[in-house]
Amino acid sequence: MIFTETLTYDDIKKNLTKDDVIAIIGCSSCARMSGTGGEKQMKDLAMQLRGEGFNVKEGFSINTVCTPKVLQAKLDPKVNTVITLSCSAGTSNATQIFAEYKVVSGCSDVGLMTANKNEGTVKVAMPYDNYKETKGNTYKMFTGELVNKDGEVEK
């Protein structure tokens, strides 16, 4: 599984224009467990964008955006832009499947993670080069909040 972090709102927004008609596609697998791609994150981003006058038409939560299941998303004909809340494999897949659309990534890959269902946490096991300092970091499942050694969420 791939642990992701959400890009800043400004990093996402700089790739959009007011002429874009947007669909948000969130991953219900790795990104959701990382706290970056679930329904809440999709709704939060849509509300923020709408609040600034962007035209967010729809959103889909798909089990694994990195697989052909993303084909299940039947986009409104007016949509011309897709924001993915997924790992880079999901964004790459969406770029191939929705080749006629502008595809904007909303997440960055941190590294490979393991999950501990009993503790409700995920741990970065093998970070990618830009995130080496995150090795061994533990995060609360579904929110991505950093958890300290006592099992408490860091403030």
From TrEMBL:
Source organism, top-level taxon: Bacteria
Protein's recorded name: NADH oxidoreductase subunit, putative
